[in-house]
Amino acid sequence: MNLKNKLKEKAKLLKSEVVAIYLSMKDSRTPIYAKIMIVITISYAFSPIDIVPDFIPVLGYLDDLVILPLLITASIKLIPKEILAENRIKAKENIQINKKIGIFSALVIVILWLGIILLIFIKVFKK
Question: Which residues 6+ apart lie within 8 Å of 27 measured at CB?
Answer without folding.
Answer: 83, 86, 87
